[in-house]
Structures are given as structure tokens and as C-alpha cells.
Amino acid sequence: SGSLDFGTSHQLKREMVAEIAATLAFSAIQNNDKIGVILFSDRIEKYIPPKKGRKHILYVIREMLNFKPESKRTDIGMAIEFLTRVAKRRCTAFVLSDFYTRNDFEKQLQIASQKHDIASIQVYDPRAKELPDVGLLKVCDAETGHEQWIDTSSRALRRAHNDWWIQRQGVLNETFTKSNVDSVSIRTDQDYVKSLLNLFAKRN
């Protein structure tokens, strides 16, 4: 989605998502597992069915790094529903996203998690949680294109932004818990390998 094309620290969210996906793919090839990928926005942009082999893995990674979606919006529920439909056998599925979506996807996630082993990996920028005090700032919604000026010198505004983040994360974590889905949140300025190891330790 458009919101992945954002980054204020080490890298864009999109770049970290691709790196994490590549790490998972290379991990799976060590176990001789098949790998497939669903690239989605508010539609299924591309589906690569699962296959084995290093050549296939490199193709998947190349697609994740270079793919340009047609839409900037997000519909996670639709993507999870598609997974349930195309994956006939039980699989392990990692949902990688910043989870900026206006649509509730709990129902689709609960249905999918009954059939598959699903884990969620949220990638977010530190500014999603805390705004810097830098005065007037022009912000743009990457998915709708809506622009507006905000005054970041306002302590009330910065606190409201942080409160919004905490509330949003609470809803998200509740969705994962109700759906029996393991999850981890990774900031773009963090070491994602350590976070992935913690996720796998939780799942074992």
C-alpha cells in the first residue's frame, strides 16, 4: 500500500518488509519448504503460487523488491480471504504490513487461522508513535492523497497522536489474540532479526 512508502529513520517500511520476507524465504528454503507470495493493496496485485527451489525464491524476492502496485489503498481482509481460497493445504502464512487499514479484518483472520498457521509482522516508523516537536509540518495521507498542515509544537497534538497510536495498537493486538495469531511489531530503526527470533521463540 502507499503507506509503506514512508520512512524517517534507517529505511522505508517497504524496504524492511521486503528484507524480512526475504529472510523468511531463505529460512524456508533451508527446510526444503515451498514458498509463495500474495502482493496486495485493496486488490490482489500479484499471486505467485508456492514452489520449491533457490531459483523460485530469488524470483519471489526480486518481485517483492521491484513490484509497483496499481493501487495505494489497503484491504487486509480481502487478501486474507484470498489466501483461504487459494491455499488448499494447511500452510504457515506470514502477514507483513503496517496494518493501516480502515476495514475490520477480524472475521477473515479468524476463519483463515482455523485452517492455517498465521503469524503477523507489523512494520512501523517511529514517527507513527511519536511526533517530533518541529513546528508546522505538512502531512499527506499516502493512500488518499489528502494533505494538511499540523502544528507539532502543540503538546496536546503530540499527546493526542500518541494516544491514537496506543488505542490503535490495542485494537490490533486484540484482533490477533482473538484470532489466535502470533504477532510482533518491528520499528524501522530496530534490528528485525532479534524481533523475528522472539516471534519464533513464542511460537515454539
Description:
This protein is an alpha/beta fold. It is built from seven helices and seven strands; from the N terminus they run H-E-E-H-H-E-H-E-H-E-E-H-E-H. It has helices at 13-30, 54-66, 76-86, 106-115, 126-129, 155-178, 192-203; strands spanning 35-40, 44-51, 92-97, 117-124, 136-140, 147-151, 182-187. The strands form three sheets. The protein has a three-stranded parallel sheet with strand order 3-4-7, with helices on both faces. A hairpin with a 6-residue loop joins strand 5 (136-140) and strand 6 (147-151). Helix 1 (13-30) runs antiparallel to helix 2 and helix 3 (76-86) runs parallel beside helix 4 (106-115). The two termini are 31 Å apart.
